[in-house]
Amino acid sequence: MYFENTNLENLTADQELIVSIMKQNGLECDGGWDYERMTFDKRFDTREGRYYLRVFAYAKSGDVGAHDAILTLMKPVLGKYYYPHGVEYGDDEVFPAHLVKKCEDILKKVKLDLEAFKIQA
Questions:
Q1: What is 12-115's CATH number, 3.30.310.100, 3.30.470.20, 3.40.50.20, 2.40.110.10?
Q2: b/e 102-113 (16+ beta carbons within 10 angstroms → b)
Q3: Closest CA to 106 of 70, 67, 64, 52
Q4: pLDDT at residue 121, as a whole number
Q5: Do residues 45 and 107 make contact, with C-beta atoms less than 8 angstroms apart?
Q6: Contact 14, 61 (CB under 8 A)
Q7: Residue 99: phi, psi to the nearest 5?
Q8: Among residues 73, 90, 74, 70, which one has the least CA distance to residue 82?
Q9: Are the C-beta atoms of residues 87 and 80 closer than 8 Å to each other?
Q10: Distance (Å, rounded) from C-alpha 72 to C-alpha 60?
C-alpha cells in the first residue's frame, strides 16, 4: 500500500540529516542500502501479522557508502511480511486500520521534522 499525499516524495536533503530524522522516528536502515539507494524500515508485529513501513531513497549525488550523498525520498509504502518469501505491497493485501493510522502519523512527523530544516520539494 503506497501512501499518497504525504508530501515526502521528491524531498531532497543531506544523507546524514535524513538518516538522523528517520532514526528519531523509528525508521532504520540496517543493511538496506547500496551505493545509490537506501531503504528505511519500521517493523510492526501485530496480531494480524508482521508489517513493514518503508521509505525508499536514492542518491541524487554523492555516495551512500561514503556517507556523503544527497538523497531524494520516494513514495512511502506499507507491506506485509510472508515467510519465507518477503514483503508484499500488492493492492490485494489487507492492512489493519490502526496500523495505517499509526504509519500516517509517523510519516507526518517525519515531514514536520524535515520542514524544521527548511527541507521542501
A1: 3.30.310.100
A2: bbbebbeebbeb
A3: 52
A4: 64
A5: no
A6: no
A7: -75, -45
A8: 90
A9: yes
A10: 6
Alpha-helix residue ranges (DSSP H) falling in the chain: 15-24, 97-115
Burial 70-98 (b: 16+ CB within 10 A, else e): ebbbbebbbbbeeeeeebeeeeeeebeee
pLDDT in tens, 63-106: 999 999 999 999 999 999 999 999 999 888 889 999 999 999 99
86-88 vs 77-82, strand pairing mode? antiparallel
Total number of residues shown for the chain: 121
Task: Give this prediction's pTM.
Answer: 0.92
Rounded CA separation 108/117 (Å): 15
CA distance 62 to 14: 10
Question: Contact at 8 Å (CB) between 120 and 106?
Answer: no
